[in-house]
Design brief:
393 residues, Rossmann fold, five-stranded parallel beta sheet, 12 strands, 46% helix
């Protein structure tokens, strides 16, 4: 029986409140296969629902969630747009809740795709309610990890399809890890709802890539976590910008803000945000799996390399990519022929592992890192007020 998780003794992790986070990170490859199996069993019902919805010619599709769950939509916009040939936007529930009239069209049929780990966040429930109130023709596709959450229990009917992920996707730890990647994978599979059965080999391939990271890259990421970085910048393009956004949040929340993080696109970073780099800054590059895009990425990476900016420069991408311009490249073997959204599922693992090790390095407990009490597993203190239309004056 394996006595270690992420290379650390289980008993130590139990004693230091890190066993849940470690197990949830390490368990992702098997979770993804379970997620495929669960969705494949419901594929006929899912297909019937989606075919009905997308028959609406003017359909507007919104991918939504709060925090980490919102970043899933940012990764998946192009996947749904290309598969459904519809207008697709990623909007956080925190934006939709306050200004629904800016984003929802009363007259257009709308499919609201909600991602939620617990399904109990006030905005997650509030946005579904307000969409029902605001839109004349609304459909809901709910993707959640918690069968007992409000999203899973409260909304039913012909205009609703709810997919509840396998139980172990419902992370017990504060930080979302397996829940994020499993919901992201679910979105990818749903965007190709009529091909789910044939996509098993692709799920197996990303699971193998993740297993490779877990078996071969732990020592490297542990060493990087021990560096004295006080800031971290995560960069990505397109779908990888959503992953960079999630990576920056993982390190910042698991260190309780001791490491202040920033995320941006490669081109956007030049327009002022690059000023954040100092000698204590870790720079993490999420490379696109697209030759055209990588031209832009490589220009910035080359510039930073020549200046030797920051304390360390970490790259994450397909094998042998830009190795001469980074201090370490975490390879993603098996992803060479994948588009960015599929590669994204496993490319977040190095960030998660780095955040886990850095949490321990700064003396915190991964399962409960928020000594300040500023963050919680389910957000607290949000009051949902009845919607009132803006009055012109």
């Amino acid at each position: 029986m394996e006595n270690k998780v992420l290379g650390i003794e289980k008993q130590w992790l139990i004693d230091n409140k890190g066993i849940h986070t470690a197990s949830e990170i390490a368990g992702q490859p098997s979770l993804w296969l379970e997620t495929w199996e669960a969705l494949n069993k419901q594929s006929a019902t899912l297909e019937a629902f989606i075919e009905t919805v997308i028959s609406n010619e003017q359909l507007d599709i919104i991918l939504t969630g709060a925090g980490t769950s919102a970043f899933i939509g940012e990764v998946l916009v192009a996947s749904f747009k290309n598969a459904f040939n519809k207008d697709v936007r990623a909007l956080s529930t925190t934006d939709l809740m306050t200004y629904p009239d800016h984003y929802l069209n009363k007259e257009k049929p709308t499919l609201l795709i909600s991602f939620a780990r617990s399904g109990n966040s006030p905005e997650s429930v509030g946005v579904v309610d307000i969409a029902n109130q605001f839109c004349k023709n609304i459909y809901h596709l709910i993707i959640t990890c918690n069968k007992d959450g409000a999203l899973a229990k409260q909304y039913h009917g012909e205009n609703v399809f709810t997919f509840i992920l396998p139980p172990k996707s419902n992370d017990k730890s504060l930080a979302m890890t397996g829940s994020f990647t499993a919901m992201l994978l679910s979105g990818l599979l749903i965007s190709r709802y009529n091909e789910i059965q044939t996509l098993k080999s692709k799920v197996e391939s990303i699971a193998n890539t993740a297993t490779n990271i877990l078996q071969k890259q732990l020592d490297q990421l542990h060493k990087i976590a021990q560096l004295g970085f006080e800031r971290a910048v995560f960069l990505g393009s397109g779908p990888m910008l959503g992953i960079a956004t999630e990576g920056h949040l993982k390190v910042q929340e698991l260190t309780d803000g001791k490491v202040v993080c920033k995320n941006d696109s490669y081109l956007g970073f030049r327009h002022g945000p690059k000023a954040v780099i100092d000698k204590t800054t870790l720079i993490v590059y999420h490379f696109a799996n697209n030759e055209y895009v990588r031209q832009f990425e490589k220009d910035l990476v080359k510039e930073i390399h020549q200046r030797q900016d920051g304390i360390f420069r970490l790259g994450i991408g397909v094998p042998n990519l830009n190795k001469d311009l980074v201090d370490v490249l975490i390879d993603l073997p098996g992803c060479e022929d994948m588009d960015d959204a599929w590669m994204a599922v496993c490319s977040i693992l190095p960030d998660q592992i780095l955040a886990f090790f850095k949490c321990i390095n700064v003396g915190l407990s991964p399962d409960e890192p928020s000594v300040s009490g500023n963050i919680a597993r389910v957000v607290q203190g949000v009051i949902i007020y009845p919607y009132q239309a803006n009055v012109e004056v």
